[in-house]
Amino acid sequence: MFRFGPNDKVFDFRYFPPLIRTAVEEGADLCELLRGTCIPESALGADDYKVSVSQLEVLVGNISQLCRPFLIMEYGSQLNLSAFGIVGYAALSSPTARDALRIANQYMPIVLPLLDIQVEEKSAYAAIKLELTYPISTNAGKALLEASLASLYTMAQFVLLDKMPKVRLEVKHKLEPYHFEFAQMMDADIQGECQHNQIFIPTDVLNLPLPLANQVSFNMSIKQCDELMEQLPTLDRSLTSGIQRRLLHHQGETQLTQEEIARELFISVRTLHRFLKREGSSFRDIVNDTLTLKAKYLLEEDKYSISQIAQELGYTDAANFTRAFRNHTGATPTEYRKKIQVPS
Q: CA-to-CA distance for 336 and 293, rounded, in angstroms?
């Protein structure tokens, strides 16, 4: 389960100062870039400054609004493995490209806790899928995913060198001119309005040995990554956590049912119940926890009325939403909103 809220400072800020400096060099005003973020200018030179989801949303939104459209994706393409500390070093020293992808999948929370990487292998191509694991505004989520896709492409170029094949990128949103600029710059194909944000690469390249492979360094890096994972606020890789992420990502008008979840997992509903029971959970508990998490996020945004939030979450009216929220948090939505608005 998620163990941080929209205002908990759990994200490493060190990836953003270079982007902000580039924006300033291109004419953006620093005060305007930081407006509404509660991020001090001194954080640009700090090594261990942390930001929250809410701060991240405002910052990325400001950059998207004030700067040229291609800036964030272009910056992502400059983030090679060396930019990601010990996780990048573990990937660099991996035996094969497949091992490097496994590292990215397993330890991505160290780099960006709200991003998840999954690899699906078919006979000819492997799909590297990127998804957000936490509710975030559409524009900020789009920017972070695009930067991450661009970074993944750069990393693939680096580790595969002259064996880098032509790849295809797919994004969920509609393509804009800067997407084609990126595709031309990277010699890649790109397609918009797709089901997933993903990169397709030939499966056979996954078995290629990496030029900097070193088993001793690899093992040492893995050990350090495991230690860092233990310090993160969200560690749960259980079935319960996986289902919650799936429910959070779902964009349909109605909530996913346990039958639909079981079908996606290729198991029966009865087996799903049994697995969840082993973890001390139930599908009803997961749904309730997910709705509460979404409700807290919407309440902290302070853009929606209680009735609007109730409708967004699928409740028949505000009274039912208020009752359910109070049962799970001990406070009404109005009380919760007032509490978080009190300056600390």
A: 12
